Amino acid sequence: MQPFIDLAEGLVQSEFVWAILCIAVGYVFYLRTIEETTRLRKQNDARENKLNKMYEDHRVEANNREERLKQEANAREEKLMSHLDKTTETLSQIERGLKEGITKLEDKMDGGFKEIWEQIGTITKEGAPK
Length: 130
Prior knowledge:
By secondary structure, the protein is mainly α. Helices cover 95% and strands 0% of the residues.
């Protein structure tokens, strides 16, 4: 057992062994760093893909919402235009009715004034009633 202990002491005191040990530790550290970097890149790619998908979903949803709102606005506009057309037609009918009514009223007034003037003329020709 003594030769083994002497060999171990000799190896521990050797600079060559320490250099190999440092190289081995450095290599293991390098491998772990590469492994961790690769893992982080994959994780980052997965998050980026998830964000891109969320962005696309949001964009599609926004486009759908915008299209739906445009359709609703167009439907409201068509309904308002239809209502405006009906209102315009109704106002035109009211206007025609008022014109007819005013014309009839003017005719009655003219007729009434003529009748009054005729009576006044008759009274003045016959003389004032006594």
